[in-house]
Amino acid sequence: MLVQMRIHGLLAGLLLFSSCVFAALPNPQDMVRATADKVLAALTERKAELDADPRLIYPLVEATVLPHFDFREMSKSALGRHWRSASEAQREAVTREFRELLVRTYATALLGYTGQSIEYLPVQYRPGDTRVMIPTRIASSGAPPIPINYRLKLDGSDKWLVYDVVIDGVSLVTTYRSQFSSQVSRGGVDGLISSLEKKNR
Questions:
Q1: How many CA atoms lie within 13 A of 196 on its CB side?
Q2: Quick one: pLDDT band at residue 6, thresholds 50, 70, 90?
Q3: What ranges in 46-147 are assigned the alpha helix state H?
Q4: For the domain bounded by 2-200, which CATH number is listed?
Q5: How far is residue 104's CA from residue 135's CA, in Å, rounded to a whole number?
Q6: Where are the domains of the chain?
Q7: What angle do CA 142, 122, 130 make, to 5 degrees?
Q8: Residues 6 or more apart in contact with residue 61 via CB below 8 angstroms
Q9: pLDDT tens, 42-100?
Q10: How far apart are the first and last CA of the chain?
């Protein structure tokens, strides 16, 4: 339940990610803001279509959001020390199923978007940095704002990728690490993969 609550907080704010050039490298905050605008515009323009067929949200997520996440890095961090002993096939399976889990939850939350606004806070970022945190706050009428910080890293192709999200002070990856560790202790990495597959079905 705690994971689901924090995931929904994440998804209310993850209306993000594209690219913008800053001195030969993309500016991470501009990237976040640009894709937020793109996703919100798509949700508004296609509301009737998405209401009629909610399954259409998946290609929208695939096209606008997923290219900007490093799911392998997120899976590696979530699996923790068990990543080292996992086979490459197991690593790929965990990454695939973890990605699917986040995609399904994110897509569902997007369908329930009700106009929450995103406030972009000052970023401690200098040209040449390869890791950065983008702080935001998600505000909606009648509720206190939720702080959501996005941890991004610059990959080898000069592209910013999200590798963790901190919602109200709690890391998404750390939350799943505790859950994954418990499942691996009971049934090994294959048991974790099986559990994720069942959730995704």
A1: 29
A2: low
A3: 47-52, 57-64, 71-79, 82-85, 88-111
A4: 3.10.450.710
A5: 24
A6: 2-200
A7: 125
A8: 103, 106, 107, 110
A9: 888 888 999 999 999 988 888 888 888 999 999 999 999 999 999 999 999 999 999 99
A10: 18
